[in-house]
Every structure is written in structure tokens, then in C-alpha cells.
Backbone:
């Protein structure tokens, strides 16, 4: 999996994921989120539009990132949710916690 990091409005980090978010890739995502928060950017948008598959490990990395960012007075929001990712979120009822936004701009609205 590839992770492309960019910044919007100076303090919002956008992580664009490409590939499979599984047990192999999840530790790297968690590490990237931890590093981003440590850099003083606790507002994070994760763009999942190019994620072809996500398993429970990937979901765990997102939840850990959400917790880390909120502990630093920020938030983690997701966008570009594919049907497979949406199904995983719905089956685990985590679609109530990780609400999908239609775009990066919509996810950052109100920040």
C-alpha cells in the first residue's frame, strides 16, 4: 500500500491511501498517523478512494488513529469510501464513529 501525505490549509494532514489496507499495511498507517499527530497536526483526513480492500487490521489502524488524534484535541475523518470499505464499516457498526464524507473539502468543513 502507498500512503501519500499532503497538507491542506496549513494544519490539516491528508493521507491518501492506495492499495489494500490489511494486516501488512495497517502498522504503517498507524505509524504515519502517530507521526502526523506528533508533528502537531492532529486534524487528519484519510482518503480511502483508492483502497481496494480493508480488513479488521486496517479498521483497527483507523480507530487507533481516531483515538490518537482526539487525544491531541483533533479529529480523524474519512472520505472516498468504496463499497467494500463501507460494508466493513456497516458490519462493525463503526460507520457511526467513522462517518464518511463525500470529499476532502467536505471533511475539513468546520475546522
Residues:
Amino acid at each position: 500500500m502507498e500512503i501519500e501525505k499532503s497538507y491542506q490549509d496549513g494544519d490539516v494532514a491528508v493521507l491518501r491511501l492506495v492499495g489494500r489496507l490489511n494486516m501488512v499495511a495497517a502498522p504503517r498507517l498507524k505509524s504515519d498517523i502517530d507521526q502526523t499527530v506528533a508533528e502537531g497536526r492532529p486534524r487528519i483526513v484519510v482518503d480511502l478512494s483508492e483502497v481496494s480492500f480493508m480488513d479488521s487490521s486496517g479498521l483497527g489502524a483507523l480507530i487507533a488513529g481516531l483515538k490518537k488524534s482526539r487525544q491531541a484535541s483533533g479529529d480523524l475523518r474519512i472520505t472516498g469510501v468504496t463499497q467494500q470499505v463501507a460494508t466493513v464499516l456497516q458490519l462493525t457498526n463503526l460507520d457511526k464513529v467513522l462517518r464518511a464524507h463525500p470529499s476532502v473539502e467536505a471533511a475539513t468543513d468546520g475546522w
